[in-house]
Write a structure and sequence with these properties.
Bound molecules: phosphoric acid mono(formamide)ester, norvaline
Helix content: 40-55%
Number of helices: 12
Length: 311
């Protein structure tokens, strides 16, 4: 049987994505009101372990995988790569083979996407993408869960993405294509999605429109999204230029007025308040950012169950 990795949204069919989301929803409902440290009644991953390697900082991904795995009855091991031999140049294939002998599953947050793919190629256990420079599929599962909770459905929801296009945008383009959401992206030249990903979306029937006009992107949207203007893989030297170029793409109350009156606002967090979005929007009635953060736990659990048990 092939190993069930979780590397990119595009590796999954519509039915597979919906099955993972349904499990996330069931798990969330089943433990309403329980202390967060208490295991789910069925503790389905008792005896299983998850190792996590972080080559970049993380709050949500680290906490949600850790508590999520514990709620499923499993064990977690969390490492910063700087404390590992991989941080001193041990090869990725050797690291993959060694860790595969010791734990049942592995999550990595890293830089180049090729590092993730190489790890998965040489691992004999499921590997989960906890974010690379190119994609962030776990985030998108939580976003989809949040979208469905607040809009009642996923298919047909018009998604507006404004500002810098990076890993989260790319995984969203893949999800929107597979699940039938028109996606409207407003970003300046040089900050737009990777051409390969737009090409993949076109080849797979995606309805993805890219404009340099933020108002055009947001007009009539069901959900408005943005992300930091300076991602973890961007250099400090890019900061000033990025802020100057992206300032016209700030999500503020005026821009939100162009979306549907009941549109929601999402942000994967961490937010740089006053840059890509104002406090008024982040803390306003349309914002669902903390539901989105909480749903990382529920979505992560469904991803772990997919990888370790199959859904
Ligand atoms: N959204 C997200 O992945 O957050 P962290 O970087 O805190 O994990
Ligand atoms: N685009 C952001 C996402 C953080 C969760 C980054 O890569 O820093």
């Amino acid at each position: 049987m092939s190993i069930r990795h979780f590397l990119d949204i595009r590796d999954f069919s519509r039915d597979e994505l919906l099955a993972i989301l349904a499990e996330a929803k069931r798990r969330k409902q089943a433990r309403a009101g329980k202390p967060k440290g208490m295991a789910d009644d069925d503790a389905p991953l008792a005896g299983h372990s998850l190792a996590m390697i972080f080559e970049k900082p993380s709050t949500r991904t680290r906490f949600s995988f850790d508590i999520g795995m514990r709620q499923l009855g499993g064990e977690t091991l969390v490492f910063n790569s700087g404390d590992m031999q991989i941080g001193r140049g041990e090869s990725i294939p050797d690291t993959a083979r060694v860790i595969s002998r010791m734990v049942d599953s592995l999550m990595i947050r890293t830089f180049g996407h090729d590092r993730l793919l190489e790890l998965a190629e040489h691992a004999s256990i499921p590997v989960i993408n906890g974010l690379t420079d190119l994609s962030h599929p776990c985030q998108i599962m939580a976003d989809l869960q949040t979208l469905e909770e607040h809009r009642g459905t996923i298919e047909g929801q018009v998604i507006a993405w404004v500002g810098d296009c990076a890993n989260v945008t790319h995984s969203w383009i893949e999800a929107a294509t597979i699940l039938g959401c028109p996606m409207r992206i407003g970003a300046p030249e040089g900050y737009q999605p990777e051409p390969d990903i737009l090409e993949w979306a076109r080849e797979h029937g995606g309805d993805v429109f890219v404009t340099t006009d933020p108002v055009e992107a947001v007009r009539g949207a069901d959900c408005v999204m943005t992300d930091t203007w300076v991602s973890m893989h961007h250099g400090e030297d890019e900061l000033k230029r990025r802020i100057a170029d992206l300032s016209p793409y700030q999500v503020n109350a005026e821009l939100m007025r162009h979306a549907k009156p009941d549109a929601i606002f999402m942000h994967c967090l961490p937010a740089h308040r006053g840059e890509e979005a104002t406090d008024e929007v982040l803390d306003g009635p349309q914002s669902v950012i903390f539901d989105e953060a909480e749903n990382r736990v529920h979505a992560q659990k469904a991803i772990l169950l997919h990888c370790l048990r199959g859904l």
